[in-house]
Write a structure and sequence with these properties.
With about 190 residues, this protein is mainly alpha-helical. It is built from six helices and no strands.
């Protein structure tokens, strides 16, 4: 195969963000209990196939296309989503420990830098996982619900980032001058 042929990191980023957004929305809404009869257990299939397999495949395609940052992030997140889905049903300290380790990986992705929307997604996702880990350790559903809302927000931002890339919408806020009354010269 030619070295000039790539999987196209632009489209794999969009695919990865959509997969992450869908998974985060399902995972978060399941934890918020805002929809009657829907729980986190209902997100297991989405987490396994969309968040796990599809996100992992998008990561491999991004790595093949030369996007080491996006490829690593999507591959690792895909593997962790798949693991969460397979281990669904565990609770207490086991689940809390896994969510804490998952949160540390997402914290690394947040601190790694990159574009701002990606950092916002990872930052909100980190807070969600940390709150859910605390909820599992403490047996407190309140923390899980707040974490669920953070996951919903992260999913919405991931979805917007993917849609913005496809629709050519803005992804950055314009910068202002340093202070009131300050004007740029030149």
């Amino acid at each position: 195969m030619d070295k000039d042929v790539s999987a196209g990191s632009g489209i794999t980023t969009v695919i990865g963000r959509i997969a992450l957004g869908i998974t985060l929305l399902a995972f978060g809404l399941g934890h918020t209990a805002v929809i009657d009869g829907v729980s986190a257990a209902d997100a297991v299939s989405i987490a396994r196939y969309v968040g796990g397999i599809a996100l992992f495949a998008a990561g491999l395609m991004a790595l093949r296309g030369g996007d080491s940052v996006g490829g690593t992030a999507f591959s690792v997140l895909g593997a962790l989503w798949f693991t969460w889905a397979v281990s669904a049903g565990t609770s207490g300290n086991d689940a809390g420990f896994f969510l804490l380790l998952f949160a540390l990986v997402v914290l690394s992705l947040t601190l790694a830098g990159g574009e701002r929307l990606g950092q916002v997604v990872h930052g909100l996702f980190f807070v969600a996982l940390l709150l859910m880990a605390i909820a599992e350790f403490a047996g407190n559903d309140g923390f899980a619900k707040v974490g669920g809302w953070c996951a919903v927000a992260a999913g919405a931002v991931a979805w917007y980032a993917a849609t913005a890339a496809l629709a050519h919408w803005p992804t950055a806020l314009p910068r202002r001058a340093a202070g009131r009354g300050v004007t740029a010269t030149g």
